[in-house]
Write a structure and sequence with these properties.
The structure is a homodimer. Chain A has about 650 residues and is α+β, with helices and mostly antiparallel strands. Chain A is about 35% helix and about 20% strand. Chain A is globular and about 75 Å long.
Chain lengths: ~650, ~650
């Protein structure tokens, strides 16, 4: 009983063509997925060892050896398999499918007779299964494997993997629940909740949603499971105890029952996955209280804790965590790529729940900025942390900036981000449109062709656009019969001037906007909609409570956030000041960074005259005119190491 | 063979009267010294335990018990004894002298038959003496005890303590040196070098200066002693190894022989103590190479690594350390009170070496700002870290700011700062004047009366002034006979307009300024010098390479750096903008913060209009006029917890 029967278009029903995202999907298919498979098999010499596939070989009995990697190493394999599954929907590949089948066979072999799957515990600590839910990620890995199995089933209709995971879920279901003989636990890192909801939509098995519900509602109840469990282990002094003590249960959002949670707290990725499940469950069960909780949490993040790039999490030292209101430093940001993935997942569930454009605005913002910054244009180098300001010398010399890397990395010891980014990219098809029986929501604009069914008719909507670089979007609608339905066009919040024509005739948008969508109700058959989303250069001002950005502006055009780079603007980007009275210009450079629209213009830079080695002086600083060039934030650091800056100083007038 | 027979006036020969520093010395004598003695004896209930005196009682065999505290806990007792010694020169006290004598008896009893003194090793690890010079502070504690013994001898002429320490130094001298059978080591935390130089000036024993010289020149030679020593211990994985690995030997300035050191590096207090000894030895031996080294290190600090408060050290996570050029963040500053003490010690030796006013400028800056901020107006609460910007909510919630405290503390587990501040304050008399056979340098201005001898005549110089609040300084010179000598008046770098009158007659300062001093050569007898150092409100601009302060100014009047506090200016001090076209005013408030001159005026503050819960918007920010009030930085946080800000945003004009 979802609130409204709204659903995405299936990934296979949308084709991306000659545009921004088709290029990125090409990168995913030809570079990211093959490269990541090599890393997972330890075939990239100069990348940190993964051992993730090897762990499965050892657990399956195919090889002898020791487990290596993190306790959650299995999840890298799962996320890669999920990405691969989406890629098969985008473009079939017998070669890749064969690799997947072989890997699934290996997972089957690694499964214990009771259904259990986890290579760390199977190989290294078989006696310690389920004894430390707080830290040990067994349920988290299970969740990612479930998501992969669902994706692979949807892509191939082969159900072997799905059955493997259903057996594992049965095992988990036998272990956890309200019954006295079961453990009353829940995962230290949320993930399985949202995965079980996905599984339920395939199996329609009540026990699958019930288990998700149990995990959600058990969370944070007194006495706290993680504390009880710790006492039982006789261990009062584990890693988390020592290092995260200050934040304790908030780190895993287990400080309160979820219905009492109103502020986003703790480890950012954990938080995003929990909030995704909350929104999804609220929708699935049409649960008013969960709905209210999800709105409170959303507003808290949007109003006080979100970077303009869609980045979430502002502190490494508090556990890759969300901190207090308006605490959004640019150089010390955590803004993990995985948190950007999680924010998109959550925003999407919020959209399904509320059908308001603001959620897809956040998805757009995150896709084009804080998510995409996580990968190089080559597809083979990644950021884990996506700061909004980098001074490489400080990053390389300050112990409080060790989490920030000045250049993207081939891989990581904790390598959650690259495969997470790959699976999100692979699933991008589902974020473009949503459909109900009478409505098509156009959520994202990108060159593509998608199929819809209304009653017994099939419709194709072709988007012709060079978005996000150009402002005109043409939608060609072709039905095999005439049908009445509504097309809803998202008018992004960044756009203050949008124009609409239908079959050449102008429409007043103001009359038809509802919840951020221009709602066009008519009989469709063979029609053309032209939407122009005027893209001027916008200067973003931050709420003055966000102290870090006072006196600064960020540049945005369309959904793209811009950054200054040292390679274009010289050293010391902080000494550049924009002047509100000087108009900046837009230019598309097809040979730069694989084709980007840049922003150029005059600005002022503090000069070095009369400093004479002095560190301080009474004499006023002096400015000189300079030409600046800003590139899309996501594309930074593809031309070598150097400074980068998003929030630029601005000469302010009273 | 010092470069020039320049020496301070003895502490007992200067009396502070009705002025800024006489008030601070009153605080030292009546509050700080008694309070600290109570803490060292664990008699302050709500302060962290010290156990420092108790450790001596146990080591002396007076009591049974375990050692408690840090491995360098003895140094707190030593520094307190040194402070006490100075206080006896300022104002004799049979009661305090009796306490000191008793404590010295205890130290004598705690001394081992071979001369060794260190309560940690005597009580807890007698077998591990001298096995880990890098971390274990035995030579550091010895250094502080030597300084205390010298100070007590100078104050009382009693030599018991001095003899105790000479015995200990003999023991150390037998253990360390170039001879094959000796250890070729040196201290992990410098301190004994400068102490041995002090001792040498009392004993005139060559071996005392030779040992200092040995420690200095052995430092950083290959193979590195700390690495060899670590191998010998069979310990490759100690605290420093694990935590300070990135910075390794730089942490203790043992990465290079001292003559190759050109950049200030590592733990800031260690660095300051080393550089003090280098400058002192350069002067003592008239050593040109050491002199060059000291100038390179000084320039490096002054040009790239010094906060305007005289604070040194900008990173906690790199070992309370100095980092790279221009890396001087305000909120994450380390700026340990002990480093400010160390900078004053160093600057003073640099002045003796070069007789340039810049060194006393730095002493003045540090005394009035980054040193004095370390203690509350009550004398019983202390800062270890002296940041230039505090947002208490961030400090209390961000793991990268745990070293910053939003309010002063009664005591610390590592309690180096309070006693260090006390001994520096106690010795302030020596920073006011220096003398050669033919010159009196007036280095600092403060209401006081000092005695000098020239040939067979005695002169008194009385400073009548309300400095640093008022700009006029009258020096009354009274000799018992007429003598020709030079009086050199420091013209502070902050002062761009100074006027001089001698016996009512104006003098052109420009003609007589040399190395920052106005040099007045005449026959003195009964004369009056009037110096007016015009104190306008100055706005300090930072070198643009200091990114953190771009777009900001700091306020200075006379030697005092100002700060905004929340209690006077409301929340969110970063949203306040000064406007260069609005004149600020000066007002002395005798009832505020025990009497301070404040700066007031109009400024602009970003208002909260039209934000409507938004975190970002395209609409420009709006300002409203506000009245601001700035107080001396050193006096902040004496009226409860709240925000504080030194570098204030400023509306810039091109």
């Amino acid at each position: 009983m979802q609130n409204r029967r709204i659903k995405p278009i299936k990934i296979r029903n949308i084709k991306f063509e000659n545009g921004f995202w088709s290029d990125k999907l090409e990168l995913l298919l030809t570079k990211m997925i093959p490269f990541q498979w090599k890393v997972l098999n330890d075939e990239i010499e100069d990348a940190p060892s993964s051992h993730a596939v090897e762990n499965f070989r050892i657990a399956a009995g195919e090889k002898k050896g020791e487990f290596k990697g993190r306790v959650f190493q299995d999840s890298d394999v799962a996320k890669w398999l999920e990405a691969l599954s989406y890629s098969l929907e985008i473009k079939s590949s017998t070669e890749l499918e064969a690799i997947a089948d072989e890997l699934i066979d290996l997972i089957a072999q690694a499964q214990k007779p009771d259904g259990y799957i986890n290579t760390y515990f199977s190989i290294a600590e078989p006696k310690n299964k389920w004894k430390n839910l707080r830290d040990n990620h067994e349920l988290y890995c299970a969740g990612h494997l479930i998501e992969a199995a669902v994706a692979y089933y949807e892509a191939t209709k082969k159900d072997k993997f799905l059955k493997i995971m259903i057996r594992f879920v049965d095992h988990i279901d036998n272990l956890f629940g309200p019954e006295a003989e079961k453990k009353q636990g829940y995962p230290g890192h949320e993930e399985i909740e949202l995965a079980l909801l996905k599984l339920y939509r395939i199996t329609n098995e009540k026990k699958h949603i019930n288990l998700a519900n149990y995990f959600l509602n058990q969370r944070g109840k007194a006495p706290n499971y993680f504390i009880e469990e710790m006492k039982e282990r006789g261990s009062e002094n584990t890693y988390l105890q020592k290092n995260k003590a200050k934040h304790g249960l908030k780190y895993s959002q287990s400080h309160q029952p979820i219905l009492k949670q109103e502020k986003a707290v703790g480890h950012a990725v954990r938080a995003m996955y929990l909030y995704t499940a909350i929104a999804d469950m609220a929708n699935q069960n049409n649960d008013q209280k969960l709905k209210e909780t999800s709105i409170k949490l959303w507003n808290d993040v949007i109003e006080t804790k979100l970077y303009i790039t869609g980045g979430i999490g502002s502190s490494f030292f508090d556990g890759e965590a969300i901190t207090i209101n308006y605490d959004l430093p640019n150089d010390r940001a955590y803004t993990e790529t995985c948190a950007a993935v999680g924010l998109i997942l959550w925003a999407y569930k919020m959209f399904l729940l509320h059908q308001d454009s603001q959620y897809n605005d956040v998805i757009e913002k995150t896709l084009y900025n804080g998510l995409l910054s996580g990968v190089s244009l080559s597809g083979t180098e990644y950021f884990y942390v996506n700061p909004l300001e980098v001074w490489p010398e400080a990053v390389e010399n300050r112990g409080d900036l060790t989490h920030v890397k000045p250049v993207r990395q081939k891989w990581f010891e904790t390598a959650c981000c690259p495969t997470n980014l790959a699976r999100l990219l692979g699933s991008i098809g589902k974020y473009i449109y949503s459909q109900t029986e009478k409505e098509v929501f156009v959520n994202q604009y990108t060159a593509s062709k998608a199929q819809f069914n209304f009653n017994n008719s099939t419709f194709t909507i072709t988007q012709r656009t060079n978005y996000p670089w150009e402002e005109k979007i043409i939608l060609e609608i072709e039905g095999d019969a005439q049908e009445e339905f509504e097309i809803l066009l998202r008018i992004p919040a960044w756009c203050e001037d949008a124009n609409l024509k239908i079959n050449g005739q102008a429409f007043d948008l103001n009359e038809i906007i509802e919840n951020g969508y221009a709602r066009i109700n008519r009989k469709w058959y063979q029609d053309q909609v032209e939407l122009v989303l005027k893209m001027t250069i916008k200067k973003i001002f931050a709420n003055p409570n966000l102290r870090e950005n006072i006196g600064k502006v960020a540049l945005q055009r369309g959904p793209i956030i811009y950054a200054l780079e040292e390679i274009d603007n010289g050293k010391n980007l902080s000494s550049i000041f924009l002047d509100g009275s000087i108009e900046l210009k837009v230019e598309h450079q097809s040979d730069l960074l694989e084709g980007v629209t840049i922003i150029t213009g005059e600005a002022y830079k503090i000069n070095n005259i009369n400093w004479d080695h002095k560190l301080y002086r009474f004499e006023k600083i002096q400015f000189e005119k300079v030409n600046i060039k800003a590139v899309p934030y996501y594309s930074w650091n593809n031309r070598g190491k150097g400074e980068m800056l998003v929030w630029i100083n601005q000469i302010l007038s009273i």
